[in-house]
Amino acid sequence: MAENTLYNKVWNAHNVGTLPTGQNQILIGLHLVHEVTSPQAFDALRETGLKVAFPDRTFATCDHIIPTASLERPFADSQAEQMMEALEKNTEDFGVPLYDPPTGKQGIVHMVGPELGLTQPGMTVACGDSHTSTHGAFGTLAFGIGTSQVRDVLATGCLTMDELKVRRIEVNGTLADEVTPKDVILYIINRLGVRGGLGYAYEYAGEVFDEMTMEGRMTVCNMSIEGGARIGYVNPDETTYEYIKGREYAPPEDEWEKALAWWKTLPSGEDAVYDDVVVFNAADISPMVTWGITPAQSVAVDENLPRLDEAEGDLKKSYEEAYAHMKLTPGQKAVDLPVQVAFIGSCTNGRISDLRAAARVLKGKKIHPSVRGIVVPGSIPVRIQAMKEGLDRIFEDAGFEWRQAGCSMCLAMNPDKLQGDEISASSSNRNFIGRQGSPTGRTLLMSPAMVAAAAIAGHVQDIREINS
Amino acid sequence: MNDKSITTLKGTGVSVPGNDIDTDRIIPARFLKEITFARMGEYPFFDERFTQEGGKKDHPFNAPERQNASFLIANDNFGCGSSREHAPQALFRWGIKVVLAESLAEIFAGNCAMIGLAAVTLSPGDIHEIQKAVDDDSSLELTLDLKTKKVSCGGREYGIEIPESRRKALVEGTWDSTALLLSRLDKARATAEALPYMNQFNSL
Question: pTM of the predicted model, to two decimals?
Answer without folding.
Answer: 0.98
